[in-house]
Amino acid sequence: MYGNQSKQLTDDELIVRRVKKQRSKLFGCAPGAHQLMGFLPIIVSDQIATFATDGKVILVNRIFAESLGDLNIRGIIIHESLHIGFKHHIRLAIWMKRCGLSEEDAHEIWNEGSDYVINGGIKKSVNYGIDFTLPPDVLWHDVYSTCGWPVEKICNDMLRKGWKPKPKKPPGGGGGGDPTDHGCGEILVPKEMEGDSKEAKDAIEKESQDINRRVAEAAMLERQVGSGKGTMFDKIFKSTGKTT
Q1: How far is the C-alpha of 185 from the C-alpha of 52, rounded, in Å?
Q2: Binning pLDDT at 50, 70 and 90, where does residue 185 land?
Q3: 149-162 in b/e burial notation, b at 16+ Cβ within 10 A?
Q4: DSSP structural state of residue 32
Q5: Conformational region of residue 174, where left means phi above 0, alpha means psi within -120 to 50, and beta covers everything else
């Protein structure tokens, strides 16, 4: 029981409350991430293995979240905020149409390549290990996590070197699958951005403009409180409109 609540919270409600609490703590140590993620709904789902975002909601696998410490949860929220700030969900919608892979395989390699970029950036943050961390088994690559290449170039290089998708698991496993399938935070493409219709292109353009505005607001907030260099949002602000 919590306070004057008349009913006991469910396990899902408890995990949403915990994620919200850790997200709120980012205002002091990573205000840019808080600015980008603070208003997004948090939804518990067993259809994803870890955390996920399409830029509009935060999906959380309860069992995975329950296995994490508070600093890990904060780090994953930052991880997802950087995916949004770098428009990885928008760029995936565009790249998967021209990469020659199935949507499923394009989704898998893009999530892998973009995680290399994001995790490399987070671990360079001056307050990494103090205010936030990432789980110990997150995706990391000695080259791709440090080279500064855009995700498109990383994925193309991985394909050139013979990247193959993981064997598909039989249906009916439940629980969102293995957390190692998608790292610690999956990128999802909003339904309205799929395909080559004018409506999809308009949705991509609208979302891109919205992300530009949100990133600018996040970077401005970080400069006001003096935390830009700590959480990579100064880099995001400078790379708005570029590929990272």
Answers
A1: 5
A2: confident
A3: bbbbebbbebbeee
A4: H
A5: left
**pLDDT for 39 beyond 50:** yes
% the chain with pLDDT above 90: 66
pLDDT at 176 over 50: no
CA distance 98 to 14: 42
Q: What number is the average pLDDT over the span 100-121?
A: 94
Instruction: Please tell me the distance from the alpha carbon of residue 175 to that of residue 107, in angstroms, as a whole number.
Output: 19
- Residue 53 is given by DSSP the state E
3-state secondary structure 65-107: HHCCCHHHHHHHHHHHHHHHHCCHHHHHHHHCCCCCCCHHHHH
Of 121, 73, 105, which is closest to residue 236 (Cα–Cα)? 121
DSSP3 helix / strand / coil % (the chain, rounded to 5) = 55, 5, 40
Contact 114, 187 (CB under 8 A): yes
The whole-number pLDDT of residue 177 equals 47
Does residue 143 have a pLDDT over 90? yes
How far is Cα 107 from Cα 188, in angstroms, rounded to an integer? Answer: 8
Structure tokens at 18: 């915990």
Task: Quote the pLDDT of residue 236.
Answer: 60
Beta strands 51-53 and 42-44: pairing type? unpaired
End-to-end CA distance of the chain: 45
Residue-wise pLDDT tens digits, 219-241: 888 888 765 455 556 666 555 44
CA dihedral 183, 227, 33, 138 (to 10 degrees): 10
